[in-house]
Specification:
single chain, two-stranded antiparallel sheet
């Protein structure tokens, strides 16, 4: 065990970015350079491009195996659509996936590889498209409204593809984990005239649940943060709205801020008496964590199938 720990410690040190001499503190014990690096996954994941390439090839194989998805529009613009990979079972539960990409990139088709685990377990897999932050003019509220509207559409239209609206679950990773947090902390009655428990369970992996430090980081160069956005879209500030069990996950080779965000959110859920499970992916970096969702025996895959009451394998 000691040898394994030393190998992991060495790997983490080699993955951590080399930073200049420490400057004035900006957030907790981090100066500006450290904070910027802590919200830049590429600084801590040297195999980022390799994992992303794997994802694209895996998604191509999944579409070949499952067939092209059904495509539905949940809004008026071209991007406001979703892909549905159907299972053979009638009135089946539904998993909605919200992708990451620093709020800047990614399309539903790129994440098709995540559908197979749900389809074979007896659930429909829905993967969302939505504006990038650049297309939204830097307005994060636009993206949050889109994913919330998409989930509302799925709830109201699940019967169109054989889904059970009363067994609707959400998964999100990275900036998609943040957006999934805005879904589970949405005011469903006020904004959509829907029940508080539209979502029956959710996985929030490697996300951001308090936007204050993100606003202080280099991400503010392309996200037009406002006090309203920081307040409304920080899930940690709206625990009272959360009406379903959560799985919160992160990897030990992620940036220190993404690890802290997950731990602090889980601690806040504990203090608020909200049912949740904290999963720690030992020796996984940010991008590798998502791959475990595609595997029924993986850290995230096993947990989500159990949350949905679906068989493993």
């Amino acid at each position: 065990m000691a040898m394994t720990d030393s190998v992991l410690d060495a790997a983490r040190r080699s993955a951590a970015p080399a930073l200049p001499k420490k400057g004035p503190l900006v957030w907790l014990d981090l100066d500006q350079a450290e904070l910027d690096a802590a919200y830049d996954q590429s600084k801590y994941a040297p195999n980022q491009a390799q994992v992303q390439e794997r994802r694209l090839f895996a998604s191509k194989r999944t579409r070949a195996a499952l067939g092209e998805p059904l495509r539905f529009a949940y809004g008026a613009s071209e991007i406001e659509g979703l892909d549905v990979y159907r299972t053979e079972q009638a009135n089946a539960p539904v998993s909605v996936f919200i992708h990451g990409g620093a709020w800047r990139n990614g399309r539903a088709a790129d994440f098709a590889y995540l559908a197979e685990i749900f389809v074979h377990a007896g659930a429909h897999s829905v993967i969302l498209d939505f504006n990038s932050i650049d297309a939204a003019g830097g307005n994060l509220m636009t993206m949050a409204r889109q994913v919330r509207s998409a989930v509302a559409w799925v709830y109201q239209n699940a019967a169109r593809f054989g889904g059970d609206p009363n067994r609707l679950y959400v998964c999100g990773h990275s900036s998609g984990g943040h957006l999934a947090g805005t879904v589970v902390s949405a005011d469903w009655r006020k904004d959509f005239d829907l029940p508080r428990d539209v979502v029956k369970g959710a996985l929030l992996c490697s996300g951001m649940y308090e936007l204050k430090p993100v606003r202080l980081s280099a991400r503010s160069n392309y996200v037009k943060f406002t006090d309203e956005i920081e307040e409304e879209l920080s899930a940690l500030r709206h625990l009272d709205r959360i009406a379903c069990p959560l799985i919160v996950g992160y990897g030990t080779c992620e940036t220190p801020e993404f690890q802290r965000q997950a731990r602090d959110f889980a601690a806040a859920l504990t203090a608020a008496g909200k049912p949740h499970q904290l999963l720690v992916g030992e020796a996984y970096n940010h991008f590798e964590m998502l791959e475990t969702l595609a595997n029924p025996y993986g850290l995230l895959g096993r947990a989500v199938l159990a949350q949905m009451g679906l068989p493993i394998g």
